[in-house]
Amino acid sequence: MKCEKSLISIIVPIYNVEAYLDKCVASLIQQTYCHLEIILVDDGSLDDCPQMCDDWAKKDSRIKVIHKQNGGLSDARNAGMSVATGEWIAFIDSDDWIENDAFEKIYLRSQADKSDVVSCGVKWVKEDDTLINEVTVSQEEVLDTKSAMREIIVDGKLKQHVWNKLYKRSLIADIPFEKGKYHEDVFWSYQVFGRAKKVSLMTESFYHYIQRSDSIMGESYSPKRLDALDAMYQRCEYVKEIIPNLYGEASLGYINSCMYHLQCALLAKQPSNVLQNIVDRIPYCNKKTVISSASKKQRIWLNLFFRFPVMTAQLRNKLKVGI
């Protein structure tokens, strides 16, 4: 098997996933691109994952294992980044898997385009690998910094999640994930794409994301998810500094998320202090800036929302708008 020149470090955070781990790791060691550094980060697992990691390391010299106290997903990713030596870095969730030729094709695209980040499509699947949905782009293209940032802001051709992408290590090495946060990818991604000069989009869907009912994102609505609003507000402030003509769209995205979270909180019958927490965040962005970036239809809802946020969220729920 031919080994390509550039080393790719693959960081796999692991916590209590013994039923899924073997399939994940097997999909990595079977890659047709063999010049890999596979970093298994045992984040204080309480099941058989620690021993499984050690067993895999005995089978393949490319595997490194980190055993650490539980610190959460962000902390585990940071631990992996701290020991990664590859020119490129990828993140794979330990209950997911990728197709065998994924890194070969993704790496070749990075070289052909001279890009800083490559993003591929994703197959959202059930635990038996039955396809739920496939999210990809209609055509391959290369985005510049502004275009990539806009796609992240509007949740378009680029998504927040980090695990379907290959990154230049020099681009991300000094951008840690925020510890103890839900939606940690939202805090992280805008900083990466604010630096990336070229981002390649691939139409092929190599990544299989397993939709588990007991995963963090499978849980019912929780106030912890308001971390996403903190991240999006930080993104607004960041965009205002580096790409100011995207500030309106970033602000519109933030306010739309406030509306969505208020709707979710109402449906989940969250207490009044949670609802007030969301309402208190609305003035963070300038109303005129938000409305000027919206469509005519959006402006009707926004004007209502700015004046009567809870009533507007209740009405949208009743009409099944935005949920």
Automatic annotation (TrEMBL):
<keyword id="KW-0808">Transferase</keyword>
<dbReference type="GO" id="GO:0016757">
    <property type="term" value="F:glycosyltransferase activity"/>
</dbReference>
<protein>
    <submittedName>
        <fullName>Glycosyltransferase</fullName>
    </submittedName>
</protein>
<dbReference type="Pfam" id="PF00535">
    <property type="entry name" value="Glycos_transf_2"/>
</dbReference>
<dbReference type="InterPro" id="IPR001173">
    <property type="entry name" value="Glyco_trans_2-like"/>
</dbReference>
<keyword id="KW-0328">Glycosyltransferase</keyword>
<dbReference type="InterPro" id="IPR029044">
    <property type="entry name" value="Nucleotide-diphossugar_trans"/>
</dbReference>
<feature type="domain" description="Glycosyltransferase 2-like">
    <location>
        <begin position="9"/>
        <end position="140"/>
    </location>
</feature>
